[in-house]
Design a protein that fits this description.
The complex is a heterodimer of chains A (486) and B (127). By secondary structure, chain A is of the alpha/beta class. Chain A is 37% helix and 14% strand. Chain A has 16 helices and 13 strands. An eleven-stranded mixed β-sheet of chain A has the order 1-3-2-6-8-7-12-13-11-9-10, with helices on both faces. A two-stranded antiparallel ribbon of chain A has the order 4-5. The longest helix of chain A has 23 residues, at 327-349. Chain A is globular. Chain B is mainly α. In chain B, 49% of the residues lie in helices and 0% in strands. Chain B has helices at 12-38, 65-76, 85-107. Chain B is extended and about 60 Å long. In chain B, 17% of the residues are buried. Classes of the chains: A alpha/beta (486), B mainly alpha (127). Chains A and B meet through helix 11, helix 12 and helix 13 of A and helix 2 and helix 3 of B.
Chain lengths: 486, 127
């Protein structure tokens, strides 16, 4: 069966069913996505390197294995893309930075190895903001591959720093991708491009072989079409890795999305103490972060409130206020200090002056002067943030807020210029400082028919709960099935 | 990392004045340090009598910390591109923002027993 455009936007399970039915082979599926990456990738500046030779080899192997009944699971034979900060043997790993565009690291990141063991097919290294945005970029043209362009409107940004994963999944160039988040780098492009993205708990996924921007804040996570897809990918990449001492032996187990019961039914059941599948005892409870939609675009607010109406069908909804703690100061100090230590060599070598964004050429200098006292004080405040947030989750399964305050920024404006007067909830900074998980799902369209998103954040290690709520939301809506005309 | 809000820019004229003061202060300190280094050591001789104090001008205001840090950056990472006024002003703005953040962190109430949130283990890391 010839592959059609609809396959470009199909879920992992659907593509897998087609493979196992014999509708197409993994090699045909891979050729289909390689063609899209080659043909459409440049339109969005989404690709750093198309890994055609490797992809065909891995696809042939998947076909051989599936033919003899050796089925490695739902990702077997499915192509994907990896943000270009993940090391891949024999293939350039650029970190989005011009001075490193031809650099090859002679090793595979653990995530790449785990996906290979799950039978997935690496089809491309995807573009990203140089040094994962750690140099302080202020506008979209901040990568040697060019500004990440949004598949819904190439006059707008795809988000960052996982710009390639955002636009590649959004444009149907790969079924899923691996992104990274230190502070917002999965949530932001997933929200802007209208896809689903998961920021796992710190330690859930090994960081070995990934560029370090901040050793205690970097997280790798899936970006895909649906919460279910992200659950499948996270299952494959999670778990302890001896090469990353901070990784934890907590492999996610996601087989089928659970159906969460409607609230009316759940209410009656709760009397008999039956347990919901989110594992919280009874009815799923969600808390809206107070004032989280106060400084957002009108359409973002409208979509958020409509989302709450949907969530209310199967969740109890309350409200909480975030404790007043210096989330941004802590997260910013940790990232700046780690970046200064990790990338001082760019200043001493002079390579920093080859960065694409003019502001990235001098954006690291000030951080070189931050005293150790600030870093240590940030690390002393951090446990207080963790405890305060953990307390918020007493009796609450997830916090909810709009993912971003605006739709994707126009490429001809600086970020601050476009978002003037708008700001997102502080849960982004708080969640990243605390190392707790989050998920974003598309929830409608705003200005100029650009996507908006719904952000759920949970207690440490609660990814299954978050994925369950998001999957139920997607079962009841079809925003995740919308895609741009490409 | 997703970009954060941009700190307030510095007035161009104020910045030029501040930078000149910092450069002059650093140059004066360097000259004094060099002069001190060149003075012969007179450890065996008695200390000379101090000269009577003359009426002097009051010391000028010291340059702000951000300007001194900027001067340190120029010396530590010398590059002709660091002479560009826009670049210097951008770094100066970042330094002021970092110093403001530092003050906020220092003002957060912490007890002596509040340990940093990182764990150090004596076990050597794996291969």
């Amino acid at each position: 069966m010839p592959l059609k455009d609809k396959h470009a936007f199909a879920s992992i399970r659907r593509l897998g069913r087609g493979l196992r039915r014999g509708d197409y082979t993994s090699l045909e599926l891979t050729e289909f996505f390689l063609d899209r990456l080659e043909r459409l990738g440049p339109r969005y500046n989404a690709v750093a390197t198309v890994t055609g030779t490797l992809a065909r080899r891995e696809a042939r192997r998947a076909d051989t294995e599936l033919a003899v009944g050796r089925d490695l699971g739902p990702l077997h034979g499915i192509p994907y893309g990896a943000k270009d900060l993940l090391a891949t043997r024999g293939i350039p790993t650029s970190w989005g930075a011009a001075p490193m565009k031809d650099r090859v690291i002679d090793a595979d990141a653990t995530v790449i190895v785990k996906l290979r063991e799950a039978g997935a097919v690496l089809a491309a290294k995807l573009a990203m903001v140089e040094i994962a945005g750690g140099l302080g970029y202020k506008q979209s043209d901040a990568s040697f591959t060019g500004a990440g362009l949004n598949p819904w409107d190439t006059g707008r940004w795809s988000g960052g720093s996982s710009s390639g994963p955002g636009s590649a999944v959004g444009a149907g160039l790969v079924p899923f991708a691996i992104g990274s988040e230190t502070w917002g780098s999965i949530m932001n492009p997933a929200g802007f491009c209208g896809i689903t993205g998961v920021r796992p708990t710190y330690g859930r996924v090994s960081r070995h072989g990934a560029m370090a921007l901040s050793w205690t804040m970097d997280k790798l996570g899936p970006m895909g079409r649906t919460a279910d897809d992200c659950g499948l990918v996270l299952t494959a990449i999670s778990g302890h890795d001896p090469a990353d001492a901070t990784s934890v032996d907590k492999t996610l187990e996601w087989s089928q999305p659970p159906r969460l019961k409607s609230k009316s039914k759940s209410k009656s059941k709760s009397k008999s103490k039956s347990k919901s599948k989110t594992g919280t005892g009874t009815v799923t409870k969600i808390a809206v972060i107070a004032d989280c939609d106060k400084h957002v675009q009108k359409a973002v607010r409208k979509n958020f409130r409509k989302s709450l109406e949907k969530l209310e069908k199967f969740c109890q909804i309350g409200e909480v206020s975030l404790p007043d703690l210096p989330y941004e100061d802590v997260a910013g100090t940790l990232i700046s200090c780690d970046m200064a230590a990790a990338f001082e060599g760019l200043l001493t070598s002079g390579d920093i002056w080859q960065m694409t964004a003019p502001e990235d050429r001098w954006g690291a200098h000030a951080a070189m002067m931050i005293p150790a006292r600030d870093y240590i004080n940030a690390m002393r405040i951090r446990p207080k943030i963790q405890s305060a947030l953990d307390q918020l989750f007493e009796g609450v399964d997830a916090l909810v807020a709009p993912t971003l305050s605006t739709v994707a920024y126009p490429n001809d404006q600086s970020f601050s210029e476009y978002r003037r007067g708008h700001h997102s909830s502080r849960i982004g900074a708080a969640g990243n400082a605390a190392g707790i998980p989050g998920i974003t799902v598309p929830n409608g369209f705003g200005e100029d028919k650009m996507p908006t998103g719904l952000h759920l954040v949970g207690r440490a290690w609660s990814e299954t709960t978050l994925l369950g709520i998001a999957a139920e939301y997607q079962h009841r809506t079809d925003w995740h099935e919308e895609h741009p005309d490409v | 990392m997703t970009p954060n809000s941009t700190p307030d820019p510095v007035n161009r004229r104020d910045f030029a004045r501040t930078l000149a003061a910092a450069t002059a202060a650093t140059a004066a300190t360097t000259l004094q340090a060099n002069a001190d280094d060149k003075k012969p050591k007179q450890t065996d001789k008695p200390e000379p009598k101090p000269e009577p104090k003359r009426a002097t001008k009051p010391d000028p205001e010291p340059p702000p910390p951000a300007a001194l840090l900027l001067e340190t950056i120029r010396q530590r990472y010398p590059d002709k591109r660091l002479e560009d006024q826009d670049v210097l002003q951008g770094i100066y703005t970042d330094l002021r923002s970092d110093l403001a953040r530092s003050r906020r962190l220092s003002s957060f109430p912490l007890e002596n027993a509040d340990e940093p949130g990182f764990l150090f283990a004596a076990d050597p890391p794996g291969p």
